[in-house]
């Protein structure tokens, strides 16, 4: 009898602490009063801080923080097609995206920062997102490079990359139809949570990433690979769109401030 | 007494614009650069300041400009300044450095085919007697090229051709005629397809 108890206790300790103490206050994803793990409300976004024009060498660059997730985006272009010339499009520019994470960005040192499956998939998603927004018809037979690096990862990697890359593309002066704002939302206890952090993402929440062109309300990319009941999908997308519009207001403010700073420096 | 109909108020724009800002409808202005049309309205596509110009037509032209100009791409019919990198009996390869008077941040590659060097006697052209590697050439873009080739350029006009060339001894040569240049140090003549620069561009 004693042995069985010991085995049970050992097994419980090995399980994830969230599972064992799932119903204890403080470790719930959404408490009864409506507060999340970091004290936010369900529809509240993390604090967004951004700077444009971080590098002088690149055509466009931006640094964006959303809570604890920090990303750096750099844009080169449009320039002549490099690498495989067979990918040249005669009527529009080719957008080349590369997503990578710094080795120090996660809790455990990342062994392979780029070239693994997840990075390649993210790069492809970023490429699809920006092909929808950038006016590539103005630059036939050329290439636009977008490089994004995650310096600290705390959930919502894709969204932060998209927001940082939008600012970098605007800084490079490449025409776009509209801002591209992205947000990751999750569904817990019949409530959509906006802007998930790492603890919420790994806590088994069905998360959905949405990239939106806010003024027209057009969706550039929608990605989800979890299970969700069909009835909840509408509410989740609605919450994601509201969150993206909130992000777009912040980005707009950053762009206007940067423009005024630059014009003061050039003496206009 | 004539009563004039009240002119509609001009739309007031915020000082700084960002991509996606609605400017006005296409009935009030003609779209210029840095803007795009959608559903009959003009939207901004750059982050910058609005510029409205009245160019004599009824409607003003509206465009959005930034302080730093974005990368300009060579377009068909544009006069470009390029540097010859290699020559071949059939064509000369060049790097395009300037489009008009705007320097490019990145070099584009171009090709001047043998038959595009001159307007007359195209089959008797020898590229070795028209260009040498290192020459600065004024050319015009005739085609953006297809998948395999680069920009196609031509110098088949009087005003196009070599503007700066160095002789084999290293001195900058002086043009004598449309097909010869002379080195001031060794007085040796070399063949080039020389551009006839307009007199007003020559410094006294």
CATH superfamily of chain A: GHMP Kinase, N-terminal domain
- For the record, the CATH class of chain A is Alpha Beta
Distance between the termini of chain B: 61 Å
CATH architecture of chain A: 2-Layer Sandwich
InterPro entries (chain B): Csl4, EXOSC1_C, Exosome_cplx_N_dom, NA-bd_OB-fold, S1_domain
GO molecular function, one term (chain B): RNA binding
Organism (chain B): Sparus aurata (Gilthead sea bream)
Pfam family, one (chain B): EXOSC1
Which tags fit this structure?
heterodimer; A: 268 residues; alpha+beta; Ribosomal Protein S5, domain 2; 5-stranded mixed β-sheet; 9 strands; globular; disordered N terminus; B: 204 residues; mainly beta; OB fold (Dihydrolipoamide Acetyltransferase, E2P); 5-stranded mixed β-barrel; 3-stranded antiparallel β-sheet; Exosome complex component RRP41 (chain A); acetylation (chain A); exosome (chain A); RNA-binding (chain A); ExoRNase_PH_dom2_sf (chain A)
What this model shows, in words?
The complex is a heterodimer of chains A (268) and B (204). Chain A is of the alpha+beta class. Chain A has a single domain (48-265), classed as Ribosomal Protein S5, domain 2 (2-Layer Sandwich). Helices cover 34% and strands 26% of the residues of chain A. Chain A has helices at residues 2-14, 17-20, 117-133, 157-172, 198-201, 230-265; strands at residues 48-52, 60-66, 69-80, 94-101, 142-152, 181-188, 191-194, 206-213, 218-224. Chain A has a five-stranded mixed beta sheet with strand order 1-2-3-5-4. Chain A has a four-stranded antiparallel beta sheet with strand order 7-6-8-9, sandwiched between helices. The longest helix of chain A has 36 residues, at 230-265. Chain A is globular. Chain B contains no helices and 15 strands. Chain B has strands spanning 22-25, 30-31, 35-38, 41-44, 49-53, 61-65, 79-87, 91-99, 102-113, 136-143, 151-154, 161-164, 174-175, 180-182, 189-191. In chain B, strands 7-8-9-11-10 form a five-stranded mixed β-barrel. Chain B has a three-stranded antiparallel beta sheet with strand order 1-4-3, with no helix packed on it.
């Amino acid at each position: 009898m004693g042995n069985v108890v010991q085995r049970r206790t050992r097994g419980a300790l090995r399980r994830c602490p969230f599972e064992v103490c799932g119903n204890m206050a403080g470790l719930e994803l959404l408490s009864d009063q409506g507060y999340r793990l970091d004290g936010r409300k369900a529809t509240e976004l993390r604090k967004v801080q951004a700077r444009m024009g971080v590098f002088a060498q690149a055509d466009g660059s931006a640094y964006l923080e959303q809570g604890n997730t920090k990303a750096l985006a750099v844009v080169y272009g449009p320039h002549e097609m490099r690498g495989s010339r067979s990918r040249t499009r005669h009527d529009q520019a080719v957008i080349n995206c590369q997503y990578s994470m710094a080795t120090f960005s996660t809790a455990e040192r990342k062994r392979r920062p780029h070239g693994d499956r997840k990075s390649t998939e993210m790069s492809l998603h970023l490429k699809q997102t920006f092909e929808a927004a950038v006016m590539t018809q103005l630059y036939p037979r050329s290439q636009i490079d977008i490089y994004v690096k995650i310096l600290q990862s705390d959930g919502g990697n894709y969204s932060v990359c998209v927001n940082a890359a939008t600012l970098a593309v605007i800084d490079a002066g490449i025409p776009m139809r509209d801002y591209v704002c992205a947000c990751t939302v999750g569904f817990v206890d019949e409530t959509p949570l906006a802007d998930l952090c790492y603890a919420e993402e790994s806590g088994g929440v069905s998360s959905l990433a949405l990239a939106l062109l806010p003024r027209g309300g057009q969706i550039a990319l929608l990605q989800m690979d979890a299970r969700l009941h069909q009835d909840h999908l509408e509410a989740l997308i609605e919450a994601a769109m509201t969150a993206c519009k909130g992000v777009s207001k912040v980005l707009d403010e950053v762009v206007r401030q940067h423009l005024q700073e630059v014009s003061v420096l050039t003496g206009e | 007494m004539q009563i004039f109909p009240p002119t509609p108020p001009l739309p007031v724009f915020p000082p700084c614009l960002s991509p996606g800002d609605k400017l006005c409808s296409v009935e009030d202005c003609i779209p210029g650069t840095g803007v795009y049309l959608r559903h009959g309205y003009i939207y901004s596509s750059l982050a910058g300041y609005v510029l409205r110009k009245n160019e004599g037509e009824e409607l003003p032209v509206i465009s959005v400009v930034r302080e730093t100009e974005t990368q300009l791409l060579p377009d068909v019919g544009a006069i470009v300044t390029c540097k010859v990198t290699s020559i071949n009996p059939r064509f000369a390869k060049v790097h395009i450095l300037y489009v008009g008077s705007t320097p490019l941040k990145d070099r584009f590659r171009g090709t001047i085919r043998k038959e595009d060097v001159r307007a007359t006697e195209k089959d008797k052209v020898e590229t070795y007697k028209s260009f040498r590697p290192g020459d600065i050439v004024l050319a015009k873009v005739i085609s953006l090229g297809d998948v395999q080739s680069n920009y196609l350029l031509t110098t088949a006009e009087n005003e196009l051709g070599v503007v700066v060339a160095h002789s084999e001894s290293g001195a900058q040569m002086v043009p004598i005629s449309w097909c010869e240049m002379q080195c001031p140090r060794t007085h040796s003549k070399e063949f080039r397809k020389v551009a006839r620069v307009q007199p007003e561009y020559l410094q006294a």
